[in-house]
Structure formats: C-alpha cells, structure tokens
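Q: Structure tokens for this one, please.
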Amino acid sequence: MIRSAARPRVQLPNVTLVAVTSVALGPTVEALAKSMRQAEFAQVLLLSDQPPPPGADPSIIWHRTDRLTSRADYSRFMLHDLAQYVPTSHALCVQWDGFVLNAKSWDPQFLEFDYIGAVWPHFSDGHNVGNGGFSLRSQRLLEACTKLPFDEIQSEDVVIGRLYRRRLEEQGLQFAPDGVARRFSYERTPPSGREFGFHGAFNLVRYLRPREALRLFRMLEKGMLAPNERWDIFRWALLRGRLGLALQMLRRKS
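A: Here is the predicted structure, written as tokens:
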C-alpha cells in the first residue's frame, strides 16, 4: 500500500501559538494540537494554573499563572500580562472552541496587521474587527494593551476592537480591514470554507465526530456555554440528526 504524504504545514517562525485558561483544560490543549497539525509555530504556549493533561504534545510549553476565576480575570491577563510571554513578532491566540482549519489559507499579508479577529456582524460603524477567541496580535499591540484601562465589565476583545481602537490606531497600530478579517477567521458570519481558522462552540461542532463532540462537551465545566450557544448547538444537532448532542445541550444548565 502506498501511503499518502503527510499534509504540509505552513511555516510560521514569527508567530507564537498561545492559549490562556484555567478552565476547559483538555479541550484547550486539543485546540492547540489541532492548530499544530496545520502550522509550525515558533513556540506553542499554554498559560495556565494547571499543567497540560497526560498525553499532551510535549512541545507545548507550560507557564504557570495565577488561577483565572472569572472572565474579567481572563480579560485582564490578555490585556496586561500576555505581552511578557510572547517572544515573537505576533501571537495567535486561541481558546478551547477554535483552532486553525486550513494551512493553505494562511496569507503572509496577515502579518502586516497588528490585530485580526473574526468580523462582528452586529456592528456597522467600521469597528467590527473583531473577535479575540481566535485572533492574531502583534507584539506591538500586546505592549500597547498593557497601558489600556480595564473596567472589568467589557471583554478584552471589545476593549481592543471598539472602546480603545481609535487610541491604538493613533499610536500607529493597524487593524485588518473587513475583507482580510473574513479570510482569516469566522465566528458569527457564514463561513466560506476557505478561512484560516474559526471561533465559537456553535461552529466547533461542524469539525467534531459525534462521539468526539459528546466527549468534549462533557468535559466542560459549568458556565462554559451561554444559553444562546447551547440553543445554537441544539438546533444545529437536531437538524442533522445528532440526537445525542441535542439531548446533551438540553440537559446542560450552563
């Protein structure tokens, strides 16, 4: 039998892949691993109060952090602490519910920008880029964010992409335009199938086998899924006959 050659990975020597978390540790490490199958990064970092679970890829570098007990703690860390861990010109930030989909969709032009995240379709004022759950950030942006105020109410990507975007742009930082952001990733916009990556639990189910999806969602702590996310997953699963997943979403309280 002739074995097909391994799919080539895109080489990203100027990019650090990084995840910051105190929850969903197993799914987060799986998201890192899926991204690593598509691209070779300068470093892969897990910033957490917990070490990687047994069997995790040994090339994932763990840095112990204080426990993040809330979304506000996470946002504060992303704004004020992340910069010190990233040695490269850019960081690709991922969460448990997003990863690199297609190495062929990488465009070196992405590195020309200081921030790229999926488009927020509910904003139409030109400040709609974007989602931080799968985002590319320059070291310059990370450093600038350490000086941004944080009120513990807004999420860190809203702080960057909306509240203080103008201030950051006045410092010479560049946000990707809408068209580039749509090629980079998607969240709440219809996918073209050619995006480099994605974010969102309601999108994650598209890329998981039935048993894998059931296992992953059982691993999640309470509070990891918002009601609208559970509803989106329930509706998606029901329409496709994924009754086990639909039932799991009905049983989850959060």
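A few notes: The beta strands are 10-20, 39-48, 60-64, 90-94, 115-117, 134-138, 185-186, 197-198. Residues 25-38 form the longest helix (14 residues).
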